[in-house]
Amino acid sequence: MKKGKFIVFEGLDGSGKGTQIELLTAKMKKDGRRVYRTAEPTLSATGGLIRDVLGGFIQRDAYELSALFLADRIFHNINPLNGIKHFLDQGIDIVCDRYYYSSFAYQGKDAVLDWVMSMNLDCPEIIRPDLCIFLDVDTESCDKRIEDNRFSREIYENKAEQEKIRKRFFEVFELLKNTENIKIVNASRDISLVSADIIKIYESIKEI
Predict the structure, then answer these.
(1) What would the pLDDT profile of 140-165 be if each residue is shown by its tens digit?
(2) In 31-179, alpha helices (H)
(3) Ranges 106-110, 158-162, 168-172, 196-200: which has the least confidence
(4) What integer is the mean pLDDT of 57-77?
(5) Based on C-alpha coordinates, what's the Rg of the chain?
(6) Does domain 6-205 have CATH number 1.10.630.10?
(7) What are the residue ranges spanned by the domains of the chain?
(8) Could you give phi then psi for residue 25, rounded to 5 degrees?
(9) What predicted TM-score, i.e. pTM, was given to this entire model?
(10) Phi first, then psi: what are they for 9, rounded to 5°?
């Protein structure tokens, strides 16, 4: 059986990942593909610990938070019921909202980046995606979207943090340019134009 495709969406908070994931998965299903939509952090017990930190309910340093994300990501990959490997082996495509690129950009701005990257990239249980789509939106626009659409903000959802994170994302993409399939999409435009570009990118890899 042909393995499914593993597609990851990344971007700043407020970049429109949820909308574009919904549009792409609808297109994939229309094409007759079986698709499983997922996200990080997961709904596991470890994912709950992470969400408590992101919500500001408990403080942990960047190294501890990086380790929690790693543990949650391993679970996300190997869980025999709804893990990434389980679905890919059945020929089901995975579309994931955030993956290790977010760890590199978010925790990697406060912890040693090489350490965060190596523990993820060198872990044999963590599958590398076939495609990472980064939705690039300027921090001013993201901040306005968050303000207009959220009742509360997570710890990284402020303009100063987002500027540092956006810069780190691009530093990470430069480091990974020869080993990972990363496509940067200007997501400041009309939703339909962004979606059309994403669908073209998806179609370029779907039969490979």
Answers:
(1) 888 887 887 777 788 777 888 889 99
(2) 45-54, 62-78, 84-89, 100-106, 113-121, 139-149, 159-176
(3) 158-162
(4) 97
(5) 16
(6) no
(7) 6-205
(8) -65, -35
(9) 0.94
(10) -105, 135
